[in-house]
Amino acid sequence: MNLEQARRGAEKLRKIISDHNYQYHVLDDPEITDAEYDKLFNKLIQIEEEFPNLITPNSPTQRVGAKPLSEFKEVKHAVSMLSLANAFDEDEMARFYDRVKGKLEDKDLVFSGETKFDGLAVSILYKKSHLEIASTRGDGYIGEDITQNIRTISQIPLTLVGKNIPEKLEVRGEVFIKRKDFSDLNRRQKKDNQKVFANPRNAAAGSLRQLDPKITSKRPLSFCAYGIGDYKGSLKLSEHTQVLNQLQHWGLPISSEFQTLKGLEMCLEYYKEISNKRSELTYDIDGVVFKINSINQQKILGYVSRSPRWAIAYKFSPPEEITQLIDIEVQVGRTGTITPVARLIPVNVAGANITNATLHNLDEINRKDIKIGDWVYIRRAGDVIPEVVRVIKEKRENVREFKMPLICPVCGSDIKRQKGKAAFVCMGGLSCAAQKIQAILHFASRKAMNIDGLGEKIVIQLTENKLINNISDLFLLEQKQLIKLDRMGERSADNIIQALEKCRSTTLAKFIYALGIPEVGETTARSLENHFHTLERIQKSPIDELESIPDIGPIVARNIESFFAQENNLKIIKKLISHGINWDSIQISAKTPFNGLSFVITGSLEKMTRENSRDILISLGGKVTSSVSKNTDYLIYGNNPGSKYEKANELNVNKIDERSFLKMIRKEGVKY
Ligand code: IVH
Fold first, then answer.
1. Catalytic: 116?
2. Which of 37, 347, 360, 450 has a CA that sits 20 to 30 A from residue 540's CA?
3. Counting atoms of ligand 1 from 1, which one is nearest the CA of 227?
């Protein structure tokens, strides 16, 4: 065989193998036996061994080709990977339905009904039909590059098949482990004296986060696609169910349970049908997902905070188990909030051993009438902290009442109830070791500064040994100090120093979130970054400007203002920056015609969501507010604009329709 013959032979074999993969994995209808398949596969290996130059990264022989990584690289998602709002009963479903109906003014809404896989969301980017990058969800905006591991999943095509495949296509879906595969895996793990996994979801997560793809390739991972992220090229699909069918035609496995549903009744029926079928399915699900089927209507509805308005997860009630509550202790949180925690006789709930459950606050204990010594139902919903559902009053004997302590068990300061609130708070502030430790742990956490390896045990030792007193001291730590801590080897100490070095480059939003301002979560931190662009402007912002930001209410605005009013906080921020913490400032060209202008958006836009247009305006230096006033410079309007349009007329505010708006932003180099 000469080189040219070998090239043609290899190409042909790859095509045949990929067609058979499709028959087997997607259609579940193999046309050849396993032995015949192996024969074709071995023939390809033979050619590639003889002519190694012909090996392509996406050849089916190369699924486990790569070497172990030293770390996962970051991948920025071009289209954010959001989560879904939840409903837990028919009332919540009906409310969702009415909300959507009100916005669409449509009679019978049509949904795609799907199973909600209990695994991990991944995004797989295909370029010119070839699998290029696969990533985890991460914080929704930045994930980890797990391409090597995704390539080992035989169900996921390395090359898409069929026609009209967009030049760039990001497939979104879930990686999970089937129930039977999970029990086989655990049996093998036990036999090999390896870690036994608590449930299929944990096993899937652990398998995807392996640096060595050889290990991943031995884990029985499955995949189902449920949507599309970013794409370039033409996609003439107007319904979500068409998207699913198209993905299947391109070779991707999709759920066999999806259905088109008309009206609320049909959705509720579908939920019942899937609930009854749940135990027959080969994989775990924790609910069903309803998505508005029309892509156009999805665009009209847009997004709120971190989830689409056009979809909802109707979750199954989580499993409950009975155990005895043997004590109630209190924990002191990052901002001093005292949380009562139930100590339980250990009980296994949905695969995890539970020894503690949160009781939230004193009102909750009184409302549920929980006493020490009671028998209780414990519930665990996904990754959520376990909680006490209710007391079994019939079993009550020798119980005693819980009393909120008057002084903090950690620092001895007074505990006081906040005015008008359920929470009791330790008044010790950062002089309370518990608050200090929690603040440092929050600063180091993954979604904040992401300082790998800096766990609770280490932070406790660091503060107890007075090596650090606040977050800025972390950056003064040296390897020789760390090494002296309990159970700390040279390698772990080096890793922490390296993680501290690496975390210095961050984003403004992550930094603000890491500061731990009460009630300022990731979304609020991101809104602050989008609105103000610089830390200085956030620090100096008057409270009414803070309140004008859509996500921020009066309480959060006050928290932000008072945080930056405290000398000590400003000192710590200064120190952090002097230790090299930095972020890219958003570049706003002073010349954009949008700079400093105030916009209001109304009506339904056709080409983009309101959220998108808001982000674009902000990135061009404009401000977006929710109501028209005499300070509004422009009103951008779509279909059915309503009262804001009239108000703009009254006040003589300039009005721009969507087409002109698109023209204006394209002139500034925005691709839309
Ligand atoms: S759609 C913008 N469809 O649920 C919404 N998600 O709570 C994109 N999930 O992160 C998600 N099955 O990991 C969608 N059929 C399904 C799903 C599904 C499971 C997971 C997914 C997502 C999470 C949201």
1. yes
2. 450
3. 1
